[in-house]
């Protein structure tokens, strides 16, 4: 083989798809996808929910067979479709968002599970497994105690275990589904370091996400999918969040700054010198009627803790809370609800909704008292009427109000949570990370609802760690760090960049 | 090298050993008869059937399932064996073979129903338990079989010696029990399928994603319990010299209690055979000791219940503590 041909073999992409399509019944999930990933490349595959990302991964993992007509070429060999074991032996490994680890087993068994899987009768000797697991960890330069149980590890370390499992199974291309969804900023840094390391080992990494995230920093190219079609592949350096959002949604999203001056309005909620040991200290803020006040801070800044205190879930050590100028003494969240404060939690699926129950029951739960007639029975018709009116007002996409909440999309589920609290007719609405896990199009819908509520006079505290979210949807933005409010920004006067500099400084 | 303590003993096992030692000291102080070799060996024999069943239940629990129907299986297999032996003169090996085949079959039915109906195994096995018992009573008219052949009803003693407290016999039930415990430990700890049962119990979704045959794992777990139920049925009949269609009805919860006290959970993926064996030792000692001291047998039920509550609470505390240490951001 000449030097020339060697070079050209090397230059060929490791993975190349040509004309890959997939229909489910009458629905087109993927349509004529041409796509390639080079050896050792870091590639981002982005698209909204339903854009076809998962279908594409499943085709490459051998879970689905693509419709005939296309081809998959891996390392120079062409296939019409793959089986799961074929995909694995070609080095295709997928790390799902839930990581698919075994929490009850040790790090050692989790990493070397592939060796165990192919053993004849006896599990392979501990020595063989230790060598395999040690080698995988060594290649990543990661240190983990092999006997530790995976359930005792923090998420970031579990992710390393999952990556090592892929390496131990000879991964040559690693798909990572939403890898940063549950990581803190520092853990993301760690992940990025690991990814650079994988790249150095010649392993291609494909991040799959519906968010525009930190990962773009290490990616070389970004491929955007929309409605089952490839929009295009772009050098990562040429994209910014704004452009990417346009490509993903196909619509130019115009961000309009709110930043109305509402200082002459009456204050709805005032917090004076609120302190709770270890959570927040000497925090003061004024939230006016009809105002949207952004509260931004990184994880652990104390923003959620402050919100819980305002909602009566925890007690202040010192300081006071005033509602409409009168001092509030909140002993429980029931007091808060009675006073007119509503709180939409960050963990809406865990705390905010009963997924199996119909929309109507989820919305009515906060105001059951009002729907009660004789003998404590709940009036069914009143309940349905209430739910239908909110479904219409918030534009919740649902067949009817008796549909279980779990059948709705993330964005619509979030609207049900909003409806549930709006039914209490609150004066103050606290929104904690209201668009986590919601895709761009639905985000815009939720922002629209929030703005309309503000216009109707509801005072809104918008808590988030996403700069654009608070910058474009607040009248003012407070910056919280280490339990204190350290800055105030007025969008339009201060730039988005300045806010993000302050946040990540 | 992995730390020996971690490999051999987890938290549950350590706690059980401590509980056993404390109980042994207290009981030997209050009754001189307790810590005699003949008393202890009799105790082991009395608990042999429970232990054999608990070994099978343990395997099903690790796989993330539960089985309520194993006493029905044990009764049915026992009766089948006795019927074939008395009416058709089946030899020991062929009667046991037929019973074992029936046990595996009934266990497999549970596995198949759980797998294909995608219903919680507790529901499936409550239903099959009812069906198995009803069929058994229907076909047998609830008739006992007394005239078991000699090979079955004669006491088989492997070792016999005298001690200060009387004659000590190491009998067939004890030996079978030890073999079952050793075999189960071996299968679960050292074989591929054993590790796959643990993996499947820990995260069924992940197990099927990496290519573990999910149905096969369930068939093996429930089939193994069915097999051990047949063995337990034979041993039980040999101890009471008769086969009764409802011989073991009502034993389900006792056996489950032993497995759970031994460290298995209803969620699956954890526990060890050693822990289950220690739980048997602990409960046997407790019951026997209270008997010797003259406490009402009803009191034992209270203590068993308390022991389970304490053990489950301790596990719960440990897990909550671990979660706090690694607070995970929810999305």
Describe what you observe in this structure:
The complex is a heterodimer of chains A (505) and B (331). Chain A has 505 residues and is of the alpha/beta class. Chain A has three domains: 14-249, Rossmann fold; 255-340 and 426-505, P-loop containing nucleotide triphosphate hydrolases (Rossmann fold), CATH 3.40.50.300; 353-424, no CATH class. Chain A has helices at residues 3-11, 53-60, 84-89, 107-111, 113-117, 126-140, 155-168, 185-200, 241-249, 303-310, 333-339, 348-352, 359-364, 368-371, 380-393, 410-422, 440-455, 467-473, 496-504, and strands at 15-24, 27-37, 42-46, 71-74, 77-79, 92-95, 173-177, 204-209, 221-226, 229-235, 267-276, 280-288, 292-296, 318-323, 326-328, 341-344, 428-432, 459-464, 476-481, 484-489. In chain A, the strands form four sheets. Chain A has a six-stranded mixed β-sheet, sandwiched between helices. A six-stranded mixed β-sheet of chain A has the order 16-17-18-13-19-20, with helices on both faces. The longest helix of chain A has 16 residues, at 185-200. The radius of gyration of chain A is 26 Å and the shape is globular. Mean pLDDT of chain A is 84; it is low at 1-9. With 331 residues, chain B is mainly alpha-helical. Helices cover 73% and strands 4% of the residues of chain B. The interface between A and B is large, with 40 and 32 residues.
- Tally of domains of chain B: 1
Strand content of chain B: under 5%
- Give me the Rg of chain B, rounded: 21 Å
Largest interface: A-B, 40 and 32 residues
SS elements, strand count of chain A: 20
CA-based gyration radius of chain A: 26 Å
Strand-pairing-aware structural class of chain B: mainly alpha
Largest sheet of chain A: 6 strands, mixed
CATH topology name of the largest domain in chain A? Rossmann fold
Write the layout of secondary structure elements.
The complex is a heterodimer of chains A (505) and B (331).
Chain A: H1 3-11, E1 15-24, E2 27-37, E3 42-46, H2 53-60, E4 71-74, E5 77-79, H3 84-89, E6 92-95, H4 107-111, H5 113-117, H6 126-140, H7 155-168, E7 173-177, H8 185-200, E8 204-209, E9 221-226, E10 229-235, H9 241-249, E11 267-276, E12 280-288, E13 292-296, H10 303-310, E14 318-323, E15 326-328, H11 333-339, E16 341-344, H12 348-352, H13 359-364, H14 368-371, H15 380-393, H16 410-422, E17 428-432, H17 440-455, E18 459-464, H18 467-473, E19 476-481, E20 484-489, H19 496-504
Parallel strand pairs in A: 3-8, 3-9, 6-7, 7-8, 13-18, 13-19, 16-17, 17-18
Antiparallel strand pairs in A: 1-2, 1-4, 4-5, 9-10, 11-12, 11-14, 14-15, 19-20
Helix pairs in contact in A: 6-7, 16-17
Chain B: H1 4-8, H2 11-30, H3 37-46, H4 48-62, H5 70-88, H6 92-117, H7 121-140, H8 150-153, E1 157-163, E2 166-171, H9 172-190, H10 192-202, H11 204-209, H12 214-240, H13 252-261, H14 273-293, H15 297-325
Antiparallel strand pairs in B: 1-2
